[in-house]
Design brief:
four-stranded parallel β-sheet; 2 domains; 13 helices; six-stranded mixed β-sheet; alpha/beta
Length: 405
């Protein structure tokens, strides 16, 4: 190649005149080389990592999410998509290790997960340090609020605990509840949900008379339930997720409790119904519209897409197999399906520029309908769902029954 070491006009001309025009054969070789390079650019692959609780106490949340991954698109925006699923075993330390592996070894462009609040919270520092967008499948608002320098990389699809706690307090108030007790997991989910329940109970002039905790692996909560019963509450709220959440209502019923019982939306799957059995009949929970999609009014914004997801999932897994936790993964896929083509206009997958553009595109999501509602995100709201994304459900004979307002 010529070297233009001087910008003096005479030198420029002298050196430029020494450049030879390639021969026809040389031009052909150059064209062939450029053509050979084009498929490599066109076939650049988007990599999505998933950190899911496939074993341990939260497995009933993670397994439907994993089963949904098989339904996600294999190509978006003309690029092939690879999904890499890792099991965090319902453990925060493992969730961090999985996240680091996906970023440093697999070089993923985005991460979906974890299935539960404590694990999702533990992943925030890692994804922020790795400048990698993350879409959590867990409930706590603390995962995305406030949107600071670290949480700007974090989004979520499930309804927040604040949205669900407000629904519980409103329902309890209309049913004459004046006193309420709480029993929840001894972790971030339990603590944050209690905070929201207590706040909205106060707004509805409901007194919180007891607050107890238990571990996911505890074989008994008899001691905690006896303390709650001593306060004679009109209602009890259980702040727990997955099958461990069945233990408090079963114990309350065994001890003769006749008041209202409410659950967190973390119980929205058939494994919970199976474990809790008849002891959960007549109990309530604010839930994803997916649980009762067929019962929703025809004008509900989530009905059509929820039914579509259910049909896809049950075609593979069988009738009655669907759960809210799979739908949250499906919605994460919809978010990425909307954002990836936008990011591809900025940079190629596998680059820091692409990850930043993907983050920006997720935050700019507006008017995207999914299985839980309509998503309108902003720089201060990385969920984007409104109150239409929750419905009140009663458990009757091991079925989810929609409760109109």
């Amino acid at each position: 190649m010529p070297r233009f070491e001087s910008l003096e006009r005479g030198t420029w001309r002298a050196r430029a005149s020494s450049v030879r025009t390639p021969s026809p054969r040389g031009l052909a070789r150059l064209a062939a080389a450029l053509t050979a390079a084009l498929p490599a650019i066109a076939l650049a692959q988007v990599k999505i990592g998933l950190v899911l609780s496939l074993t341990g106490p939260a497995a009933s949340l993670g397994i439907p999410a994993r089963d949904t991954v098989a339904l996600l698109p294999k190509q978006i925006g003309g690029q092939s998509v690879e999904y890499i699923v890792l099991d965090d075993a319902s453990d925060t330390t493992q969730a961090v290790q999985d996240t680091k592996k996906l970023i440093s070894e697999n070089h993923v462009d985005a991460i979906i997960g974890s299935s539960i609040t404590p694990n999702s919270l533990s992943m925030i520092d890692v994804v922020a340090d790795g400048d990698t967008p993350m879409i959590s499948l867990a409930s706590s608002a603390k995962i995305i609020e406030p949107v600071d320098a670290k949480r700007r990389w974090v989004f979520k699809t499930p309804q927040t605990d604040a949205m669900m706690a407000s629904a519980i307090a409103a329902h309890a108030s209309t049913h004459g509840v004046k006193t309420m007790a709480f029993i929840g997991q001894a972790d971030a989910l339990g603590e944050t949900f209690y905070t929201e329940v207590a706040k909205f109970a106060q707004l509805h002039h409901i007194d919180m008379v007891a607050s107890e905790r238990f571990n996911r692996t505890d074989p008994s909560v008899t001691g905690q339930v006896l303390k709650i019963l001593a306060t004679h509450p009109d209602a009890v709220v259980v702040g727990a997720a997955g099958t461990p959440a069945a233990l408090p209502p079963k114990t309350l019923r065994e001890r003769g409790y006749k008041g209202l019982i409410y659950h967190n939306h973390g119980v929205g799957n058939n494994d919970f119904l199976r474990v809790c059995g008849a002891d959960c009949n007549g109990t309530f929970l604010p839930a994803s519209p997916v649980l009762v999609a067929a019962q929703l009014p025809v004008d509900h914004p989530a009905k059509r897409l929820a039914l579509d997801y259910i049909a896809r999932f049950e075609a593979v897994r069988g009738p009655g197999s669907v759960s809210a936790f799979g739908s949250y993964t499906w919605d994460a896929g919809m978010l990425l399906g909307n954002a990836i083509p936008i990011a591809l206009k900025v940079a190629a997958p596998g680059t820091p520029e692409f990850r930043r553009a993907l983050r920006d595109a997720l935050e700019a999501t507006r008017g995207l309908a999914d299985t839980n509602g309509v998503v309108n995100m902003s720089a201060t709201d990385h969920l984007g769902l409104d109150q239409r994304a929750r419905v009140m459900v009663e458990i009757k004979n091991a079925k989810w029954v929609y409760q109109p307002n």
